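check these tokens.
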Amino acid sequence: MRWATALWDQRGRLEQYTGENIENVEQYRSFATALAQAEMEYSKSLRAVHKRFAAFGQQDNTSAMQTWRSILKGVETVAAAHEQTSITLAGDIQEHLKQAAKSKAQERAQIMQELAKLDANLQQEMATMNKITAKYEKVKKDSDAAFAAFDKAEKADNVTKAKVEKAKATWVQKAKATDAIKVELDQEQRRIRDIRVLHYKNHCPSVIDQLEACDQNLWEAIVKAYHKIAMCFNYVRKSNEEAAQGIAEKAKAFSKSNDSALFATLVLGGRQPTPMPSDTDPEEETAQQPMVSPTSPQPDQEPEAEEEEPAASTQQCRILYDFAGSNDGELGASANEVLNLLTDDGSGWILVAKPDTLQQGYVPSTYIEKI
């Protein structure tokens, strides 16, 4: 149902409704801001928990502790997803709503000006007709008064024939003037009727159609922002699923017998567990642990000297996203910045250093790519 046909006589309501819709965009922007703050706070809370427990169990390579490390990795994955959601809400979605409201407010203002111009033109035409109407009414009144004077003189016994003829001539003259003005008024009324038909049947409906389209496009932009929010939620959902799947896979690979055997091997060898990549298969990790042999050095024996290997070149990484590093022990870095990678223990936090200042600190593993 078109506004132009159903609401052509509700111009005031249309003006109020469309204006309020544009003003209400600010409410949607406020919501996006509040949601972005909540997402960022939640991300920081998750990272605080991760940082608190990141060092726990890193030297234990049992399948159970690998599952534990996958939980820590999952926490970091989810934290990164909520942080990215916050960035999108505060950036892209905010800007999208801002530009939509601005452009549609300007478009609506132009449409309302066009409607006002049409109304002003109609009022001007009506003013011309009103002047002719007022002129006709005055001439008609004079004509009626002249006729009354003539009729009175004609009926009077003491009025001369010359005066009667003079009164008649005056009346006839004013009657002719009245008839002439009446013809002009009839023509003007027909012209105004045609103008009103064009105004209400063609000109105004065309502009009201533009107003309706403007409002529809505004809502289309608002719903597009809703869809962007849905995509953010979907991204968080997928990140949670990814984290859950990683934990489930590690938990499924749990082997109590292998864990017990690994513990016994380490105890008998007098060694401490060494950190291993958290994404290595538990069976492979168990196979990689050195077994105790009869020729292994005893506590009172000196181990045979091993040839020193040449020092490896410094591993570097590139920062993918801006990282504030606002907490103790973290290192702030900008997107595309190249850093020295010092330690990656699989906890989800990478120890890095700036090549120029050698300043060290931790950054999330999801924020870097090795080069």
Summary: Residues 112 and 131 are 29 Å apart (CA to CA). Confidence is low (pLDDT under 50) at residues 273-312.
